[in-house]
Amino acid sequence: MHEMSLTESVIGIIEEEARRQHFVRVRAVVLEIGVLACAEPEALRFCFDVVSRGTAAEGARLDIVLVPGAGWCFHCERTVALAERFAPCPECGHSRVQMTSGDALRVRELEVE
Questions:
Q1: Which pTM was predicted?
Q2: What is the pLDDT of residue 44?
């Protein structure tokens, strides 16, 4: 389950920010997950509860915001919605589509004490 290593990275980011900004407790974490990121939100929630124990984020609320997939079609020269990786352009059907969003996972916001 790669969600565990993803969550460990998120906790690492939070702990680094706690040291840098001198806060001791995180009340809420807003995590953006692209729908094409190959990360299961419910698995991330479970892992977050486990991995955050004993850290500044222990007991924090985890809010997940799903980011839709999008890509640039080289044939019809427009930004199109993507429902899956390597999908053809939904507008013209050509396969030369470069993903531009929806494949990332990032900590968007922390609510701290």
A1: 0.85
A2: 96
